[in-house]
Write a structure and sequence with these properties.
It contains six helices and 16 strands. The chain is an alpha+beta fold. The relative contact order is 0.15.
Length: 309
């Protein structure tokens, strides 16, 4: 329902969230891109909440906010402002020289409130607030030198095969930008140093086997045309885009979980789904419990070391 001042009120569970200026354009149209408003963003989050919230609950968030839309200024918000409603959970985590109080999104009302704040992209920690030093997710970001999705598709196949050989189940997600994320569920018993070292060695093994196509070089000038196997998110206080979050690009593309079979779809690309159709993909349950059982890295580390020898 809408008030006389144009504010829209949206019911979410036991709470009602006010959406201010719902007609404000956040994603201008043009070319093949459709125009989307703040109200559209809120409607998308309300619909996708049952599928998105399991990937957010209990995790510190960094919010990518675009108050004037994707063509205006942007800022990354870690500290939760005092004016945020008291019912939005916060978690205090250590940083060098102090602490940061991150917002946590545990319910639909919080998700809608963040959308009203023009938090277009939600970046989540790979660990949970109750064990911030021990990640339960490992992420490989397949980052092409240009907008070459065929290179991304090929790298995903190679990485998936290596993880299968290490007996680590993995999941795929389009980033809504240019590449794919390959995600492994962990049991939360390893600290960030262990996880990052393992990810670095997996990426290094793959790059050594395909030096003409893949690289682990962090500096762009050293990569050439090769795809970058980015493992930098696997560190304390680093984040990765959350499943089903929207990216600040024309057409409002969504970071969308997919099945490994969908990797062969010739229509697939990093921006394949938008807020117009990502919920339909979510309803197919593309990960189908794949990340429910986190793995220990010990057995995989031994297999990897044997391969490297």
């Amino acid at each position: 329902m809408s008030g006389a001042d144009g504010t829209r009120r949206v019911r979410a569970g036991r709470r009602t969230v006010e959406v201010h200026r719902p007609d404000k354009v956040l994603f201008p149209g043009g070319g093949d891109a459709k125009e989307y408003t703040k109200g559209d963003l809120v409607d998308y989050h309300r619909a996708v909440a049952p599928f998105m919230l399991p990937h957010l609950r209990g995790r510190p968030l960094m919010l990518e906010r675009h108050p004037d839309g994707i063509d205006g200024p942007t800022f990354m918000q870690k500290n939760t402002p005092e004016h945020y409603p008291e019912w939005i959970p916060r978690t205090e985590v250590a940083k060098e020289g102090g602490t940061v109080r991150h917002a946590v999104c545990d319910d639909t009302a919080t998700l809608l409130y963040l959308a009203d704040q023009a938090s277009i992209t939600l970046h989540r920690w790979l660990s949970r607030a109750d064990a911030v030093d021990h990640p339960d997710r490992l992420v490989f970001d397949l980052d092409p030198s240009g907008d070459d999705f065929e290179a991304v598709r090929e790298a995903a196949r190679l990485l998936g095969e290596l993880l299968d050989e290490l007996e680590l189940p993995s999941a795929l997600m389009t980033t809504g930008s240019r590449g794919l994320h390959v995600i492994v569920a962990l049991n939360g018993r390893h600290d960030f140093d262990e996880v990052r070292a393992f990810a670095r060695d997996v990426a290094g093994t793959l790059a050594d086997a395909h030096p003409d196509r893949l690289t682990t070089a962090a500096r762009k000038k050293e990569r050439g045309e090769r795809l970058y196997l980015d493992i930098q998110r696997n560190a304390y206080a680093q984040t990765a885009v959350a499943p089903y979050t929207v990216r600040p690009r024309p057409g409002a593309p969504v970071a969308t979980p997919i099945t490994w079979d969908q990797l062969d779809d010739p229509e697939l690309h990093a921006r394949r789904w938008t807020i117009a159709d990502a919920v339909e993909q979510a309803r197919t349950d593309p990960w189908s419990g794949l990340l429910n059982r986190g793995r220990a890295l010990g057995p995989a580390r031994r297999r990897l070391d044997a391969l490297r020898r």
